[in-house]
Every structure is written in structure tokens, then in C-alpha cells.
Amino acid sequence: MKIPMQWIKEYAPVDMDPQTFQDKMIMIGNGVEGYENLGAEVENVVVGRVLTCENHPDSDHLHITTVDVGGEAPLQIVCGAPNVAAGQLVPVAMVGAKLPGGVKIKKGKLRGVESQGMICSGDELGVPVELYPSVGAEGILVFNEDHPLGADVRPILGIDDTVMDFEVLANRPDCLSVWGLAREAAVACGTEFKKPEITVKECGGDIHDFVKVEVEDSELCPRYIARVIKDVRVGPSPMWLRKYLHGAGMRSINNVVDITNFVMLETGHPMHAFNLDMVDGHHIIVRQAREGESITTLDGKEHQLTPGQLVICDENKPSCVAGIMGGEESEIRENTKTVMFECAVFDRAATRITSRALGIRTESSGRFEKGVSVKTAMEAMERACQLMVELDAGDVVSGVIDIYPNPAEKQVIKASCERIAKRTGVDIPADDIVNILRQLHFEVECDGESLTVTVPDYRQDVESGEADLSEEALRVYGYDHIPSTNLRGETTPGGRSAGMRLKDEVAQILCGMGFYEIMNFSFVSPKTVEKLNLPQDNPRRTMLAIRNPLGEDTSVMRSTLVPDMLSTLSLNMNRGNAQAYLYEIANVFDPINRTEENLPKETMKLCLGAYGDHMDFFTLRGMVERLLTHMGISVQAQVGGECYMHPGRRAVLMHEDTVVCTIGEVHPDTRDAFEMPARALIAELDMAQIAAMRKPMGAVKANPKFPAVSRDLSLVMDESTPVGPLMNDMAKAAGAISEDVKMFDVYRSALLGADKKSVAFSFVFRHPDHTLTEAEITSAMEKVIKAAEAHGAVIRA
Length: 797
Hints:
Helix 6 packs antiparallel against helix 9 and helix 7 packs antiparallel against helix 8. By secondary structure, the protein is of the alpha+beta class. The protein is 26% helix and 28% strand. The strands form 10 sheets. It has a 7-stranded mixed sheet. Strands 3, 4, 5, 6, 7 and 10 form a 6-stranded antiparallel sheet that branches. A 5-stranded mixed sheet has the order 12-15-18-19-20.
């Protein structure tokens, strides 16, 4: 929040440089992000009067002027502004002057005529037309008032102040005001806070003859105050008011609107001015919006309203979004004659929800979201009416409408000086505690060590009793009084969880096989999942939607890693990479099955993707089996797979009755959807299943003492015969001497017959106690062949 120092000094006389003031404010707990000297870039610019103005003989737009700046002799200045004329009072940059942007004025010649300075425009001085009326960049700035020649222009133009930039935390909404910060400044600098005396001169009449106010929802609007100003005289605000608003970062509009903004900044209470002539029936109704209603706000944008959003309406339509922004139709115009001032309190949560839903963020909504005191609203209203009279902007009609059905009570806290000192860890004397609380405008009654403290109306943050009083006492007494102590306790080294260690182990194995890790965002577009052409009832089609996404491309949390893996493979293919072995380990989100805390279930998945000359279904399957073998998980391949996998080149790897992995080549239709010009393989595994199924390494075995014997066997079988179950049955049939069975070749030929294939296996036999005899090996092979025949496989001739 930006506030000019001169505004603060009106209520808390602070006589120190900005840096010292900043340090003192920080030390009592008020954040200050920095400060800015408004006129720091303007030097040696003074008031001058144009004595003569003649056309330049060698130019069709330049003028030769003589300007009196209060010196010994007038200055000759060549000026190109079309509006320069004799008799004007203007800002003159002397030779050696500095202007914003690093501009330095030097003596020079323009078309052969010497120029001893520059007559400045508002833009050249960094003064917007809202701060001091001018023609902007179209010509020079002309003073409307009389000023001494040679006087510094910075005080005249309102750029002679220092603006402090305060960081107001969410727990101190009272500091979102000049009065709140001035109170803090008075305590920090040891001065006294003086609030202006507020009196309102009324012109007679009865407010009820001008407006009727009705509040339908007192929970969302606990207090609503209205006053009427008649015979309104809309015009520009005085310089002091424009200057303060400019320093606070707000634009001057007109005297009526500026007063509401000024009071909001000064007191912390947002206000709104209604053009009462544009309010149908002169009837104000505070209610929730109805289905189908809309409003065009002051920024010219139309917003559709929904039930539950609080609005200020007339008899026919919404005129204002409560606490956020007024409607365009009831805004203050030059011909406005009757105005109703509103100073209300709206529910902070409802204001925040409506503000986010409509996408409107204003100074007003920010204050209501943090909390506005319901007890001090009348003071803000009276201050606004006082300024309307003082600035002769209108006449205040007698009477006030104050709808306040449930008045808030004073908050009283019982405390003990001894407990406060013990809680803070600092031996703060009881007298100092009492004095500090009184400086902070708490009412304190003492009975020995016991305190009865009445909290100021504007301090909504003091709600934890004695703990809050302890914080107040310590921050003013000084955090530097906290004694230094040695670190106590024991430190324990951090560690990685079981899930992290499993992820590290899997990553190490995959990297050893040549895979590279990829990482993608967890939020994706729902269109990427649609490319997989999953069945309509597939749960992965139901994705967790993000409330306020950056865009459609990041609007849902992903339910599968496959689309991102395919997109990454496609990117590498289209960039000309000959091969890629990639993996990603990340969570997927299931909004259907929720946790005990009603949060979406998160499951860690492993997705493998690969393509290249040396990559096929069997290669990737072998890599997955190697990974699972390392984890102590044995699997069997069975027919199955996902719809986005090739129907003839896919499988599921089973451990007992559980699917551990789905693996296959990407379906041609899916490849086209992801613009993949070549074949690719993909596999999916559940990291939670791997963690549950993995077995620790057993006892180490000694190297075998007796040699192994290998036998090869080529079998012809139907094309549809699955090889995995066949291998398992042959291994069991071989008995205890079977050490390993591997498939090493698949052959297809018309000579084998229609729909036939030849599969070659390698068997390794070994006995732990003796060298195998030929009879033992032959017996084992006969059993293997018999098991193969049960699957319809015969020895290849």
C-alpha cells in the first residue's frame, strides 16, 4: 500500500528522513518494501512568466520567447509548443536542470537562435493530467494560479513528497488505511496520533424523502449506512486531494468520486457513490443475485451474475456488485445532482468468492476480503459528508439510514502483566506493558498485576486474548530485548522415504539399460486423453478439473502418464532423433476413489516408452522382466493389453492373479493421433504394486561345483498358442534339474503350414550334487516334449 509521507504527517507528526522512518516502522512489525521520492528526477525547474512570444524566422512551428524567472535578466528560450503565448505562467527548466528519464538541459541553438533553457510540458515533468490539468504532450503546461517567479515547481505540481510502500499483512486490515499507519507511526516514532475532528453540517430535509433502503441478507451485509447529498456540484478536486490520491497510486476523476476514494484510503472503509437519479424508484435493495441477471460495471465490462453473489439493486436491476465495483448506469456524471453515499460492511468470504468468480480485483474488494470493522463504518460516512461540505461539492440532507440489526459488542480481555512477560520470554516491566497498550489505543484498567483491556473497535485481529496482547507489548517494547540463547535439543539427519528409495532404485536400473528420465506437468488438456480412444466408461476419462486453470491446455490433472509419454516420443521422432528410450515416474490422480480426507487418490505410476531400430516388443518386454526380476517379482505373459496398443503385439505381465504391467506396440490409429511417423513401444506399471510384491534378495549361493548341460528344442505350434504358459509348463516338467529356459527364435514360413509358427527354446540343466548323466538329461527332455504336446506343439522336422 503506497501512502505519501505528508498525508501521514497530518495525523502523526514525524520529523525524520524516510530511511529512519522505514527502519522504525519495520522494528515494530510493519513491513515497508521501500520508498520513492516523487520529484527526485526533477531539479532546477522554476516558475517563469512568458514576456514575449514571436515566430522563429526559419521555422514554421518554433517560437522565440523571453521568459522572466525572477533573475537579473529575462531568458531567451526557443519553444516548439503550439500553445505558448505571452503572459503565461509556465514551468521553466533552467540550464543544468534535470528531468525524468535522465534528461539534462544545456544551452544550445535551434535554427541559429540561442536558447537558454526549456519551457516544459506535463509529460516532460512526469506529471499526469489527472494530477495537474494540462494538455499533456500536445503543449506546455500552463499554471492556473499565481505563483512567485523563480519558485520551485515541485510543490506546485504535487511532486515534492516521499511515498512509502507498506507491506500490509493479512492479519492487520486496520493498516490498510492512513489512520491505521499513522497510529503505528506515532507509536514507532514516539509522537501522538491526532485524528481530525469530524462534524457534518446538514442542510435540512429528510433522507427518507429521497431514498428507501432494504437489506434482505443481513448475514452477508451486517451493516449498511446511507446518506444523501443534494444539489451536487461535480467538478475537479482541489490540488491537495489530487496530490494525495496520486501518491497513493489512484487517478483523480472528480470531486465526488475522489472523496469516496480518499475516505477509503484514509479510514480503510470502502465507499460507493450512487447517482440517485439513475436508481429506479429511488429504492436500494441489498440482496443475492437471481438467475439470469447481469451487470455492466464501471470498467464497461458485462458480467453474468449467479445466485449467491451479493448485489446492490434498485427496483428492477442490479446497480452494484457489493464490495467490488459499481454499475456503469449509476455512476457519477457531470450532470449528477443527487448522490447517495454508501458505507457498508460485507462478508469477507462472500466478497472473495464473488471477486474471483467475476475476475474483478479492486482496492475495495481487497479490503473487504481482509475484513472491515463493522463498528467504525459510521465514522467513515461522516468523514465523507464532512468533506463534501468543506469542498462545496454538495449539501448533506438531514438524517442517516443505518441498518445494523446485530450491533457488535466491545471486546474485553482479562490479562496479567506477569503472564504476558512470561509468554514473551522478556522481562517487560508492568508499567511499560500498560503504557504500550495505551499508546496503541487500548483502554486499560489495572488492579495490581491484573489488567482489564478493552480492544479498539478497528483492531479485528485481536481475537486470541492474552496471546495477542503479549504480541503487541513485545513488538513495541522491542524484539531486540529477546535474550540470546544457545540452541537446545538434538538434531536428527533427514532421510528418504521407502517410496523415494524405490523410485531411486527403479531409476538406477532403467538408466543402466539406457533409459532417460522425462518429467511432464501434472496438469494437462482433456483432449490428450481423448486421443487414446478409451471406452466411454473407462475411469481414466474422468479427470480432476482445476478450478482456475491457466488455460484449456492445463485444465485437468492427468489420470494416466501415457499421453505425455506419446507426445514426448512424437516430439523426438519429428525432431529427427533415431531412437529414444524414455521413462517417467509420477503420480496420477483419481477423483472418483478418494481418501479419508475426501482428497483425490494419488497413485505413483511408471511409464516406459521407446522406439528405434533395435527396439521391438520382445526387447521391451525383456527389459521390463529384468526390472521385475531385480525386484524379486516373477511374472508370466498373457494375452491382453490396452485399446491404444496394437492388437497383435500387446500383452499383460501377471504375478499370480495380479496384472503388474501392460505392454505393447502403439496402435496405428493412436500413432496417427499423436503424429508419430514410426512404430513405438509403451509399457505401464504401478509403483505401489511393485512395492507390495517385491521380495528381498535371498541367501547368497555358492558357485556350482558341477557343469551345466544345455539342450535346444524347436517346436512347431499354432500361431495362436501363447509361448509364456508353454515355457512355464516345460520348465516344471523338466523337474529339479532345470536351471533356466529361454526362447531365442521365432520362425514363420509357408513350409510350416497355414497359421503355424516355429519357436526355438534353450534349456539349461544342472544337478547340485553330481554331473548329470545322459539318461537323466534324456528323461527330462522327454518330459518337456510331453508337456509341449499338451499345448499342441510338436518337434520341428
